[in-house]
Amino acid sequence: MGVHYDKEVDAVYVKLGNQKPDGAVEISEGVNLDTTGDNKLVGIEILNASKKMNIKTILSKLIMQSSSFF
Asked: Which domain holds residue 12?
């Protein structure tokens, strides 16, 4: 699992597995679930993320996540 924030487009992506998505389902405005061909959830995309969540919290989790690799 991993979390990525793209500041340029203000989007958060939560990767839940190593499978590549075959499609997406929009569950609410700007929130999409990425799924495989057999409907397994592999990712969550949140557009306009700074308006929907605290980006500082996301960034702190990313820093903690990356520091665990060293």
From this structure: 2-67
